[in-house]
Amino acid sequence: MTDRLASPAEPQPVLSPGATRRRILMRRLWRHRSFRIGGGIVLAIALLALAAPLLTSTEPTQMNLRARFAPPSAEYLFGADNFGRDIFTRVLYGARISLWIGCASALLAAAGGAMVGMVSAWFRPLDGVIMRIMDALLAFPAILLAIGINAALGPQVTSVIIALAFAYIPRMARIVRAAALVVRELDYVDAARVSGAGGARIIFRHILPNCMAPLLVSVTFVFAYAILAEAALSFLGIGPPPPDPSWGNIIAEGRDYSVQAWWIMLFPGLAISFSALGINLLGDGLRDVLDPRLKVEA
Amino acid sequence: MARLIAFRIAQAIPVMFVVAVLTFLLMHLLPGDPATIIAGDMADQAAIAQVRHDLGLDRPVAMQLWLWVANLAQGDFGTSLMLNQPVAEAVLERLPVTGSLAVVAFLITIPTGIVLGVIAAVWRDTWADTAVMLLALIGVSVPNFWIAILSVILFSVTLGWFPSSGYVPLQDDFGRWLASLIQPAVVLALFQIGYLARMTRSAMLDVLDQDYIRTARAKGVSITITVAKHAFRNTLMQVVTVSGYILSLLIGGSVVIEQIFAMPGIGRLLVQAIMARDYPVVQGTMLMLGFAFVFINILIDLIYAYVDPRVRYD
Amino acid sequence: MLDVANLTVDFRVDTGWIRSVDDVSFSLDAGATLGIVGESGSGKSVTALSLLRLHNDRATRLSGRVSFDGQDLLALPERRMRELRGRDIAMIFQDPMHSLNPVLTIGEQIGETLRIHQGLDRKAAQVAAANLLDMVRIPDATRRVTDYPHQLSGGMRQRVMIAMAIACRPRLLIADEPTTALDVTVQAQILELLRDLREEIGMSVILISHDLGLVAEFAERVIVMYAGELVEDAPARTIFEAPAHPYSEGLLRAIPSADVDTHRLYAIPGRIPDPGNRPPGCNFEPRCSLAQATCAASPPPLDPIAPEHRIRCPIRSAAKEVAE
Ligand SMILES: Nc1ncnc2c1ncn2[C@@H]1O[C@H](COP(=O)(O)OP(=O)(O)OP(=O)(O)O)[C@@H](O)[C@H]1O
Ligand code: SF4
Ligand SMILES: [Mg+2]
Q1: Does the structural domain B87-313 have CATH classification 2.40.50.140?
Q2: C44 CA to middle of ligand 1, Å?
Q3: Which among C109, C143, C167 is the end of a domain?
Q4: Apex CA C145: angle with CA C140 and CA C147, to 5°?
């Protein structure tokens, strides 16, 4: 069970070349209900974030002292905060930073994890050391690791991304390593090696395509986690710095007024919940279709 | 069993060593000079040099690492800059708070998560299953500190059922201790309950598919007893292995929860230290937590070995 | 005692319902032995599990009649069925490695049958379990009752399964490939044990196997299944000496024999069709060397060709008539 948690089942060569196979997968994904719902939510939120300037007439940092603590109304859809900034606008623009952090850290974690996992699987002498390091990192809950790293890096958008990516690298590395170890032993990889194919070629032609499915599933789940983690870091005061809005720092700033002006923290919280929900649903669908034997998320 | 304990501890030593080195590197290899930050914006070169010297940062990195590990081996986790107190002492003082919170949350999570997971598995594809899976989904999608704040507004401010902040030590008053813990612990547990329910459900479905379940049914054992006796024990063994992970997550989550409920625990210490740039405390706290997690893993492995006859008798 | 009529089993799968067992009928007298043979996937296990209604309710549709002592088991309420399982009809399975619960002692698992059906207390059940272990010839039985399954070998575990099955002296024992997972010497011992216990308890036995030789040696009567259908039903002697259905002939030729000096073991060419993908006519037609045009047109009926002998092959039935 520990094993099951940690190392996913052997990967299936899912994204193998072959358009029909891809088409079949697409069709199965499309038929998967949670994939459709999740995909719809994610798409809607992404579109709202992109279209932010069209949907609101003010700037996210525009203060209006007469509107301080204005409750939700036709003019201030989600109300206004202690500086009289429009929460609706801030939530819309906040989506950009929050989704960017989530997406970038998930992809960075996948890239880092892929590298670490590949090196570990390919250069056996290093395997022991690398995996001990990954074990040590895995002993920490990801959020704590992100807190620790970000404490050293300081509160900036890039450092949040780096911290979150680092926190999730060990999980990704394990997935890729497991996949790479399996692929390593396959005959055609042997054949490729014998026929003199270089390491890079083997990695890109054979190993990466084979861990694509579990990796993609993990990226989705880490994306959702990272959005939540960004919010938690912001709340602790080590997230993306104000005044530019992220969902996390809007809540953090609204916290002191949570009783009188509940709307400040309510709406960004809902935004976080909806996007994480959508992404998780998407991940559930991907997992069911691409990698049915993978039991546990990330 | 004794051999197994010895083996697991021997296995943990390199991991603990790596944890120690990593926490050291965390503060040394990252960009920025802690001495400059600690000395503050107003400090001149001499003051910065002084701080650097006090922290031992003017020595070669390898030397510093060696001193760090050597000190650790003697139980010296460093000294806090803001508290003027050994880090280990500061952490241990706050351990009862975080410990109480995590343990109470754990005691709420385990039975609830297991029961919900079993219900979902046994009544698979019914509304009960859907409800449990929905709860699990919400648990991984909603920020826990946000729920915590909403909960305070509802239960403490509006209804006045629970204190909104603070911690009452257990030895002072059991009732008030529990009252001060119940809200943060429930909020903390809420999110792990979903995760555990999901794990339990999939473990239970796995077990229900096993041949020995069919054997039990072929003997005339009722469905209820088959589930309660034959399937449940096997499911439980799989759940034991995730329970350590859950406890670790609860401890990690308490960093945020302590902040909201103003509980003077290790998480609060960590956040205060980050704000005050008290690097020895950040480093020492991370390290001690890391050791705690390694220890929890060992403990869980041993419990697993004890409950699984296949391991127990080997 | 047991009379199965038109048993049909459908399973729900992603794409709809598939028919796994199709209109199977046979009967069995008290104290008699019946063998069921067929290749892997022919529906033997599904048939056996249907007799005890051990399939997952929601994904399975059973029809036909299974009457046991005059009552239709398929119509019995689950409560009554439960009382019958393990007491009147017991079953042992193919894979002794996974058929025992790993976290319960074997004494507990054997005793459980007795505690359920005969109301024994824990102590008495434990003593009875030791006696049963003795009966299935496990040495040092009193000490073994506290063992866990992983401490026993495969053969021993199958003996434990047998002990569990005979605990209440059932009137019918269904043994689904009880020896397939074991090595040859152990196989012989287990079969001998089953034979002796059958005598001793006086129960009927249904022995399922893909090995026609083994079944013919053990049972008085044999039915041959192919792709969910019963294709031949005859006394064991007949099946072994003069099988009439081309598929049974193939199975017979596939038995490795000691006296004939064949270097290459015969195997029926081709594969059994998937339940969702069967040919329109005779299921065996794609693999049958006697097939004629009519065979592919419509499913052949099951015809009697002699007293106590039925086959599902019009070509052979006709040949037989001509010969007589
Ligand atoms: N629960 C189920 N759901 C769907 N299909 C099933 C189910 N159980 C069995 N089948 C199908 O029914 C057919 C008959 O299976 P069965 O297990 O009875 O074969 P068998 O004769 O016992 O073979 P073996 O020698 O391998 O045990 C197979 O094609 C199998 O895939
Ligand atoms: S009916 Fe035709 S195809 Fe089927 S077994 Fe008989 S001869 Fe062969
Ligand atoms: Mg079978």
Answers
A1: no
A2: 8
A3: C167
A4: 100
Q: In chain C, how many domains are there?
A: 2
Instruction: Mark whether C124 and C265 lie in a shared domain.
Output: no
For chain B, the distance separating the N- and C-terminal CA atoms, rounded to the nearest angstrom, is: 9
| Residues B238-254, mean pLDDT to the nearest whole number | 90
Residue C66 and residue C125 in one domain: no
Do C124 and C65 belong to one domain?
no
Compute the average pLDDT of residues B151-170: 81
Q: pLDDT for C40-62, tens place per residue?
A: 999 999 999 999 999 987 889 99
For residues C190 and C142, membership in a common domain is answered with no
> Could you tell me the residue range of the domain that residue C228 belongs to?
2-88+168-323
Q: Are residues C264 and C185 in the same domain?
A: yes
**Cis preceding linkage at A268, omega within 30:** no
- Which residues, judged by CB distance below 6 Å to any ligand atom, belong to the binding site of ligand 1? C 11, 13, 20, 38, 40-46, 210, 275
Helices and strands in chain B: count of H runs, count of E runs: 14, 0
CB B109 within 8 A of CB B221: no
The CATH code belonging to domain A24-61+76-290 is 1.10.3720.10
Report the nearest-CA residue for atom 9 of ligand 1: C46
Mutation choice for ligand 2 from C292, C303, C310, C317, CB with most ligand atoms inside 8 A: C292
Give the CA diameter of chain C: 67
Nearest-angstrom CA–CA distance, C23 and A252: 69
Pair C40, C179 in one domain: yes
Atom of ligand 2 nearest to the CA of C283: 4
Please report whether residue C143 resides in a domain: yes
Residue C113 counted as domain residue: yes
Residue with tokens 């826990």: B144
pLDDT class of A2 with cuts at 50, 70, 90:
very low
Q: Tell me which DSSP letter residue C172 carries.
A: E
Ligand whose nearest atom lies closest to the CA of C38: 1
Note whether B18 contacts A269, CB cutoff 8 Å.
no
For residues C227 and C141, state if they share a domain.
Answer: no
The ligand whose atoms approach the alpha carbon of C243 most closely is: 2
- Give domain limits for chain B: 2-73, 87-313
Ligand 1, atom 29: nearest CA belongs to which residue?
Answer: C41
Residues C72 and C202 grouped into a single domain: yes
Closest Cα to atom 16 of ligand 1: C43
Beta-carbon contacts of B141 under 8 Å, excluding residues fewer than 6 positions away, are A224, A228, A273, A276, A277, A280
Assess if residue C123 is contained within a domain.
yes
Predicted pLDDT at A14: 45
Going from the C-alpha of A289 to that of each of A213, A221, B136, the distances in angstroms are 9, 15, 20
CB neighbour class for B42 (10 Å; exposed up to 12, middle 13-18, buried from 19): exposed
Å from CA of C52 to ligand 1 middle: 16
B vs C: CB pairs below 8 A: 75
Q: Whose CA is nearest to atom 3 of ligand 2?
A: C285
Distance CA C50, CA C45 (A): 8
C93 occurs within a structural domain:
no
Burial class, C296, CB count within 10 angstroms (exposed 0-12 / middle 13-18 / buried 19+) = middle
pLDDT at B213 over 90: yes
Pocket test for ligand 2, best of C229, C232, C247, C282 (most atoms within 8 A of CB): C282
Helix (H, G, I), strand (E, B) or coil at A149: helix
Domain residue limits, chain A = 24-61+76-290
Which value does ipTM take for this structure? 0.89
> In whole angstroms, what separates CA C124 from the centre of its chain?
32
B142–A153 C-beta distance less than 8 A: no
Residues of B with CB under 8 A from a CB of C: 210-212, 214-222, 229-230, 233-234, 237, 307-310, 313
When pLDDT is cut at 50, 70 and 90, the band that residue A187 belongs to is low
Considering chain C, what is the average pLDDT of its residues? Answer: 90
